[in-house]
């Protein structure tokens, strides 16, 4: 590997590398805007850009299944959930002057320091390591599926139990708040929505809890 | 491709998320920053898995499997996290992290937070009547 | 029962009585008086039995070792010879009389139970000292007496005089006890045993290396306990205690212990001629000085206290001449008449309502108020002044005779200088003793002026005790001087003609001169009114006495003397009077030498403690408090701050770990 890496310098990048670099810059920029913008909804939308950029990076690393899962779950489900959450907590639309707390400078110091340390260590460790991306895709659906259902069945099933627990937990949290509100909303409406999609169960719970917002949408 | 590219990108993304977690006031923005950190880890996992699957004869593709698990867990986490944030918002009338200071030294239950439950219940009443 | 068993029971019974009295004093007040009197009385009977069985023959020795105690064994040893047997009888007699008298004297005192128990304990400790054949066991009794005297002298602890006096008695005797303890340990190390018989055996065989040093160390303890110059200053102040306690301390216990101790170990002291000379000089200074001081005192009890010091000087003088028979003879007769003097003085103080001779000299008819005290006190004063045929005459003549014997060089035991010192000082003291005895009698019973106040009849038990003690004061000397040599060393105690004539002559001269002076001054008494009387006609004697002691300084300006121009002592002493009244300023000397440096040192230590040590302590407290405040201000409750700090620390640690791992 070292011999192979010796032939590939940083000053003569391949096309894949240039593409990776450009997409990476976009992703990083979107991430930075996400954590710095004063408009909360914009932050969620810039998060979509960042997560999408990551999906492209996965593709460039030949992990296509992961890339599609990333698009489906993150861009599809998680960001929608976050937007729901923003609306349910009545986040202001437009610029909010106090989006950052007074801890900003300490946070910046810590973040920059850890970035410097991590980048230094990572570059120091892996500057000569080369990934051979030729040949069959390392992360095609067939390869990933075979690996997942041959070697990772037990963790996979355990994970389904975890998801079930999260589902139940989210429902309980929402119902508790609802019980405190004199229990007007019928609980029968909640269960089909929560059962329909395991990943989006909290959205079902929260939407049923506040039927007014759901109706508006 | 050099392994350093994804590794450095992952480190930078991670620290960006870290900054968001530490600096953002709104709890939902903090959750978004957590998602960024998780994705940075995922990128790392995938990059190393691809590198190792080429280098080794037999591979379990553990990096990709763990990435899938992480994505699933992240989905569960964002669901639970949002439910908690909503519950807090309902009870306190705010989802600002730096206003939830119940563990402060010398914190008094009837301190500056006394008005927030009142407004919270008022908002809930308004919601219920609507 | 064997003699040994009886002798063991003698100190044990009063001890058990004291323990029972302390335990039951509050819960069963009805038992207090029997518990005080009966054990002491039983101990007296047993002591008489022991004396009868021992009979002046061979000493009764018994020993048992409870447990091994290191290189020099401490044994429970009993050594009853003629001295021990007779002194024990004296202790028992006086203690019984004191206990009986106290039932009347402290009739209404709320602290009577503890008082009676402490008197019993005191008696028990003295019995222990008398009978013990082991120096360590003797020391136990010796120290128990010290602490008992502290409590008993401070019985009226409401008055500042009593508090000061009890502390002074304790500290001064302890000052002597420290060298005493060192001397005992040195003696036991050199002799190889604490047993008195073995120690005396070692002395006889000459195996002691440092007899002078040991004797001088022991003498310090004896001087403290027996109130010899220069450690006598506690005794006059101890008059702040109740009168029966004064009688007990002065007649039979405590002060007698020192003399008795020297008498027991006399061969040790004789081994060192220096110690004998020191003893003689000590005795001479004590005798003359205390007699002069007694002539100037105004408090009747302080006169008696100084007379005790003087009579103890006679005893140490006899010891300095190597005649312990004469010393113990004088101890016995003195115990009888001094107990009588004090108990009678208690009656007089109660009747007169004052302890001041100046006030008594302005009262008419005090003699008729207390006829029993008058007659018995007259007997006792005659005995004190050594007028034949009262008992004091015979014992004092035996002392003077022994001194004359040594002075003229008839004996090997003691240096001739010691004999001359004791003889001359003894004759001077005989003159002065007669003078102050006459002065006391004249001022107390021949007063002119207003009628004495009526404090009611004296309790019968108090008067009865006076008559019981009057008998030995009157006749003990004359009856005993022929028998006692059998019990003692065999020295002849018969008065010799020279010293008898000399002693009686100077005593008569002293008495007549004082009478003449009194005749001269008594006319002044009417012109200078003086005096304060305690007004408690119904109160018991102890209450009257406590009030009289407390009011003496406010009424007369001083604890010891009164500004009375009609006092014959003032005329006789002339310019010496103010110094004598103040005890020749020995207290002031002690104040300069010891009290002030100690106080200065204490204030220095206090300053160091408050200003230096406490500064460190306060700083040690303030620094953590500041740190705590600083740390507390970090507890804002803001989770983001916490996580920031956590991650910052993590980054630092990670960087450090990487640097260490890469060896940078």
From TrEMBL, chain B:
Renumbered residue ranges of the record's region Disordered: 97-130
Molecular functions (GO terms): NADH dehydrogenase (quinone) (non-electrogenic) activity; quinone binding
Described purpose of this protein according to its UniProt entry: NDH-1 shuttles electrons from NADH, via FMN and iron-sulfur (Fe-S) centers, to quinones in the respiratory chain. The immediate electron acceptor for the enzyme in this species is believed to be a menaquinone. Couples the redox reaction to proton translocation (for every two electrons transferred, four hydrogen ions are translocated across the cytoplasmic membrane), and thus conserves the redox energy in a proton gradient.
Gene3D superfamilies, alphabetized: 1.10.287.3510
Transmembrane segments: 66-89
Example GO biological process: ATP synthesis coupled electron transport
Record field: compositional bias (Basic and acidic residues): 97-110
Family label: Belongs to the complex I subunit 4L family.
Catalytic activity, as annotated: a quinone + NADH + 5 H(+)(in) = a quinol + NAD(+) + 4 H(+)(out)
PANTHER family for this protein: NADH-UBIQUINONE OXIDOREDUCTASE CHAIN 4L, NADH-UBIQUINONE OXIDOREDUCTASE SUBUNIT ND4L
Regions of compositional bias (Low complexity) in chain numbering: 114-123
GN (gene name): nuoK
Cellular component aspect of the GO annotation: NADH dehydrogenase complex; plasma membrane
Name of the protein in its database record: NADH-quinone oxidoreductase subunit K
EC class of the enzyme, as a word: translocase
Compartment annotation: Cell membrane; Membrane
Keyword Cell wall biogenesis/degradation: no
This protein's UniProt keywords: Cell membrane, Membrane, NAD, Oxidoreductase, Quinone, Translocase, Transmembrane, Transmembrane helix, Transport
């Amino acid at each position: 590997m070292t011999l192979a890496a010796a032939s590939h310098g940083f000053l003569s990048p391949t096309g894949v590398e240039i593409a990776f670099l450009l997409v990476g810059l976009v992703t990083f920029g979107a991430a930075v805007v996400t954590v710095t913008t004063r408009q909360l909804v914009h932050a969620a939308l810039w998060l979509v850009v960042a997560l999408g950029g990551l999906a492209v990076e996965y593709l460039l690393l030949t992990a296509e299944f992961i890339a599609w899962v990333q698009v489906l779950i993150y861009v599809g489900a998680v960001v929608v959930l976050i937007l729901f959450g923003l609306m349910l907590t009545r986040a202001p639309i437009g610029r909010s002057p106090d989006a950052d707390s007074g801890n900003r400078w300490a946070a910046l110091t810590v973040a920059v320091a850890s970035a410097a340390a991590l980048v230094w260590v990572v570059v120091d460790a892996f500057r000569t390591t080369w990934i051979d991306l030729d040949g069959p895709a390392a992360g095609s659906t067939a390869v990933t599926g075979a690996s997942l259902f041959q070697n990772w069945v037990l963790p996979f099933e355990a994970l389904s139990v975890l998801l079930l627990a999260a589902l139940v937990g989210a429902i309980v949290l929402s119902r508790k708040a609802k019980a405190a509100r004199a229990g007007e909303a019928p609980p029968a409406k909640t269960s089909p929505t929560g059962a329909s999609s395991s990943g989006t169960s909290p959205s079902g719970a929260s939407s049923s809890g506040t039927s007014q917002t759901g109706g508006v949408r | 491709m050099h392994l350093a590219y994804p590794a450095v990108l992952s480190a930078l993304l991670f620290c960006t998320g870290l900054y968001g977690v530490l600096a953002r006031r709104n709890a939902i923005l903090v959750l978004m920053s957590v998602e960024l950190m998780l994705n940075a880890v995922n990128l790392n996992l995938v990059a190393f898995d691809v590198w190792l699957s080429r280098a080794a004869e037999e591979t379990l593709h553990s990096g990709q499997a763990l990435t899938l698990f992480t994505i699933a867990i992240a989905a569960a986490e964002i669901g639970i996290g949002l439910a908690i944030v909503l519950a807090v918002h309902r009870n306190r009338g705010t989802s600002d992290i730096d206003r939830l200071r119940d563990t402060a030294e010398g914190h008094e239950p009837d301190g500056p937070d006394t008005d927030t439950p009142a407004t919270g219940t008022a908002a809930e009443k308004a919601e219920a009547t609507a | 029962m064997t003699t040994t068993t009886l002798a063991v029971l003698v100190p044990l019974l009063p001890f058990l009585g004291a323990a029972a009295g302390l335990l039951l004093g509050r819960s069963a007040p009805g038992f207090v008086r029997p518990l005080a009197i009966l054990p002491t009385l039983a101990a007296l009977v047993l002591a008489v039995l022991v004396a009868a069985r021992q009979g002046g023959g061979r000493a009764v020795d018994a020993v048992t070792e409870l447990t091994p105690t290191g290189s020099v064994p401490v044994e429970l040893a009993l050594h009853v010879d003629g001295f021990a047997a007779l002194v024990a009888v004296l202790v028992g007699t006086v203690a019984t009389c004191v206990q009986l008298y106290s039932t009347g004297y402290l009739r209404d005192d709320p602290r009577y139970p503890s008082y009676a128990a402490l008197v019993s304990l005191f008696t028990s400790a003295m019995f222990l000292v008398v009978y013990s054949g082991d120096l360590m066991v003797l020391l136990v009794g010796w120290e128990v007496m010290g602490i008992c005297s502290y409590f008993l002298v401070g019985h009226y602890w409401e008055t500042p005089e009593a508090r000061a006096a009890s502390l002074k008695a304790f500290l001064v005797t302890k000052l002597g006890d420290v060298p005493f303890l060192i001397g005992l340990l040195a003696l036991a190390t050199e002799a190889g045993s604490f047993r008195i018989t073995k120690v005396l055996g070692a002395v006889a065989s000459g195996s002691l290396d440092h007899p002078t040093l040991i004797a001088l160390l022991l003498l310090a303890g004896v001087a403290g306990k027996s109130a010899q110059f220069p450690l006598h200053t506690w005794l006059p102040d101890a008059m702040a205690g109740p009168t029966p306690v004064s009688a007990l301390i002065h007649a039979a216990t405590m002060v007698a212990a020192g003399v008795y101790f020297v008498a027991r170990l006399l061969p040790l002291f004789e081994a060192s001629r220096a110690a004998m000379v020191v003893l003689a000089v000590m005795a001479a200074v004590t005798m003359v000085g205390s007699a002069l001081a007694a002539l100037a005192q105004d408090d009747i009890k302080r006169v008696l206290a100084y007379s005790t010091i003087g009579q103890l000087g006679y005893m140490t003088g006899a010891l300095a001449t190597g005649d312990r028979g004469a010393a113990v003879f004088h101890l016995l007769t003195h115990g009888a008449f001094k107990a009588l003097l004090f108990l009678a003085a208690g009656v007089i103080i109660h009747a007169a309502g004052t302890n001041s001779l100046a006030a008594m000299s302005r009262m008419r008819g005090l003699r008729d108020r207390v006829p029993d005290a008058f007659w018995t006190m007259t007997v006792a004063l005659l005995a004190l002044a050594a007028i034949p045929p009262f008992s004091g005459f015979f014992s004092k003549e035996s002392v003077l005779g022994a001194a004359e014997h040594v002075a003229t060089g008839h004996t090997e035991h003691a240096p001739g200088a010691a004999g001359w010192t004791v003889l001359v000082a003894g004759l001077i003291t005989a003159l002065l003793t007669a003078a102050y005895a006459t002065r006391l009698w004249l001022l107390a019973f021949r007063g002119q002026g207003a009628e004495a106040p009526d404090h009611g009849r004296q309790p019968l038990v108090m008067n009865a005790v006076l008559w019981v003690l009057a008998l030995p004061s009157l006749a003990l000397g004359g009856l005993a001087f022929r028998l006692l040599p059998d019990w003692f060393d065999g020295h002849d105690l018969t008065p010799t003609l020279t010293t008898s004539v000399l002693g009686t002559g100077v005593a008569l001269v002293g008495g007549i001169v004082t009478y003449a002076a009194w005749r001269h001054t008594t006319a002044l008494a009417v012109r200078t009114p003086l005096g304060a009387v305690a007004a408690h006609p119904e109160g018991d004697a102890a209450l009257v006495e406590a009030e009289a002691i407390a009011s003496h300084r406010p009424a007369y300006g001083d604890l010891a003397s009164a500004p009375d121009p009609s006092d014959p002592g003032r005329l006789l002493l002339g310019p010496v009077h103010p110094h004598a009244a103040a005890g020749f300023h020995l207290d002031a000397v002690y104040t300069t030498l010891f009290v002030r440096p100690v106080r200065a040192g204490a204030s220095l230590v206090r300053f160091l403690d408050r200003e230096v040590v406490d500064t460190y302590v306060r700083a040690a407290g303030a620094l953590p408090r500041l740190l705590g405040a600083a740390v507390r201000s970090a507890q804002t409750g803001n989770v983001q701050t916490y996580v920031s700090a956590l991650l910052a620390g993590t980054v630092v640690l990670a960087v450090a770990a990487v640097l260490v791992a890469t060896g940078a």
